[in-house]
Amino acid sequence: MLEETNARVTGFKVFRPGVEAALKALAVAALLALLVLPLAWGYQQRNEARLWREIACTYRLKEALSDGRLLTPADLRGEACARLSELGLQLAGRGD
After folding, report:
1. Torsion sign over Cα 52, 57, 60, 62
2. Does residue 1 carry a pLDDT above 60?
3. pTM for this structure?
4. CA distances for 15 relative to 9, 11, 23, 82, 94, angstroms
């Protein structure tokens, strides 16, 4: 018959304790990667979207300058999107 022991039963009894600890550490690392990688990807996408928006605003300002709506090329300095909103020239949003 089986002998009764007061030992705690853990998950992987087919592996040695060292191998079991390594597998648990790998599982924890994989779970952390599943959380951190999407967050890092989203942060990078947000930064790229901001960059492209600033580029679009800069082109819109240059277009307004070539049409003669702006006074000087100094209007192109600083944040392009903020300058556009100061001048009342907005970029069209999605679906506009």
Report:
1. negative
2. no
3. 0.58
4. 13, 10, 10, 62, 56
